[in-house]
Specification:
The complex is a heterodimer. In chain A, 52% of the residues lie in helices and 12% in strands. By secondary structure, chain A is an alpha+beta fold. Chain A folds into two domains: 3-36 and 132-214 and 332-370; 61-128 and 216-327, no CATH class. Chain A starts with a helix and ends in a 16-residue tail after the last helix. The longest helix of chain B has 29 residues, at 43-71. Chain B is an all-alpha fold. In chain B, α1 packs antiparallel against α2 (43-71). Chain B has helices spanning 16-39, 43-71. The chains are: A alpha+beta, B mainly alpha. The interface between A and B is large, with 40 and 47 residues. Chain A: Pfam families: PepSY_TM. Chain A: The chain crosses the membrane at residues 12-36, 146-169, 190-211, 337-359. Chain A: This is PepSY-associated TM helix domain-containing protein. Chain A: Keywords: Membrane, Transmembrane, Transmembrane helix.
Amino acid sequence: MTPRAIKAWSKVHTWTSLISTLFLLMLCLTGLPLIFHHEIEHLTGETAEPAALPAGTPMADLDRIVAVGTARFPGYVPHYVVWDRDEAELVHVVVSPTYTSPVTDNRLVTLDGRTAEVLGQPEPGGFMHVMLQLHVDMFAGLPGKLFLGAMGILFAVAIVSGVVLYAPFMRRLDFGTVRASSSRARWLDLHNLLGAVTIVWALVVGLTGTINTWAELMIGYWQKTELAEMVRPYADKPPLAQHGSVQAAVDAARAVTPGKTTFFMAFPKAPYYTDQHHFVVFMRGETPLTARLMTPVLVDGETATVTATRELPWYLTALLVSQPLHFGDYGGMPLKIIWAVLDVITIVVLGSGLYLWIARRRSRVGVRRVAAPDAIPSAPSTQPAE
Amino acid sequence: MSVTTSRRPAVRRDSAARIWAWPIALAVLSSAGLLAALVGDGLLDIVSWLTLGVPVAVTAWFVARRQRATER
């Protein structure tokens, strides 16, 4: 690589990192407890353990589950029902004051699906809630999401430019060498070592996180295009006044998707995933590969007859496949622990990068003052290797 | 694997293979680990723990080695 190329890449690395570092540090720190949100919610008693009932205890009537969950918030209306992926007996009901309330007004009630007993309802403002909101959008809604998504792209550029710069830096060092000659040499070597170890993980988690920030836009686009096409026959009907049986709607959806299991459902008039007239029941497969993919089944909100079903477009499939790769929740507790360790290593890479930039600036100022040569070149040596 | 640390850097040959062998090996292992748990359960989960665990173990080993070297 020519000295000019190294200098250019070095500029790219410095600036993409500098702009994104503070936000990435925030994302790494808030992401750490989120990896274990399930365990933390159980430990802090935010979600109670489901009762020990004999295996094969049937699920309660869904209309009752929804009624009990919604009754927790008088005057609220149900928007969604989510079947828990990890604990099959848990059902979550998402309610909101009205059908047009902002998503921040949504409340979640977790129930035992077999007894319709309420197990928990996370309080907004609780620790995990604040971590999640900071991580997702910094309490700034869609603009916050898109901003963090842009930071994710800068992070990816910083990683790629870091990889490009790795070779000239490491030309005379064995992998894993950590020189003790000075604080800056030590942290530069650690930055290179820890950065090299986390390249793939950080790229994958960063880019899948960015894809996640576009979820709202993708779902909105799907509603305006494919969903709108599927519900065209209802275009002239007034919005549904009162929906029919939830259980009947889910039974109808199950009947047309043999071998699949319920993932979540949207109620008529909910802001996302549906229109004014339909229950949309999302069915997923049962193998590890297909468990992340879902098929929407549109069910008439009054008569519980299936009106349409269609595979999701590629961009929503990409979103669904990218989610586990961001959350690290797809390989049991050991994978979560590895996720946490790599997250901490990334924090060290970010922190050492920031330190190196500050130290270099300070030494440059020092050079100007005492006119002494810098002990460690700020850019890798550009002389040809002997 | 050559892990003997040369502290006289200037005489080493500039070889792309030497520079990239470890990072590429770790990248291949990490990628395999990220995908393994995605396509299957059970055995493939264990494969992902091992392959993703290796980069972590390698880091720990090199950082620990440096600590020992400084203590000496």
